[in-house]
Design a protein that fits this description.
Layout: E1 4-8, H1 12-24, E2 28-32, H2 35-44, E3 49-53, H3 61-70, E4 79-83, H4 88-95, E5 100-104, H5 109-119
Parallel strand pairs: 1-2, 1-3, 3-4, 4-5
């Protein structure tokens, strides 16, 4: 069974790139361009991991993460923040979530693979 990775990203070219890279790594990407639709997709079919952009509308990545973690069924799903912002680590340090990681844009296939394999075994 191929494990699903939910990619929540509002930039279409980045979403297309993540689709290609995640497929190359042997996972099945589920591509969603906004937080509300991503929450619904996760409820329908919980992924093995979520790759999450921060700068989105109508809710940003931090709001998505808060809504996700509020639901008991999603507290154990690893989330990798995928952002170009250097201030992400400051915010993450305040959250204290062992299932929360970060990858900085742009990301290489090697970095993406290492990030995913840290949480999916």
């Amino acid at each position: 069974m191929v494990r699903k990775i939910l990619v929540v990203e509002d930039d279409e070219p980045i979403l297309d790139l993540m689709d290609l890279l995640i497929r190359r790594l042997g996972y099945e990407p589920v591509l969603i361009s906004n937080g509300p639709d991503a929450l619904e997709a996760a409820r329908r079919d919980p992924p093995a991991l979520i790759l999450l952009d921060i700068m989105m509308t109508p809710i940003n990545g931090w709001e998505f993460l808060e809504k996700l973690r509020a639901e008991p069924a999603f507290r154990e799903i690893p989330v990798i923040i995928f952002s170009a912002s250097p201030s992400v680590e400051e915010k993450m340090a305040k959250i204290n979530d062992p299932l929360l990681g970060v990858l900085h844009k742009p990301v290489s296939l090697t970095e993406l693979k290492a990030g995913i394999e840290r949480y999916i075994r």
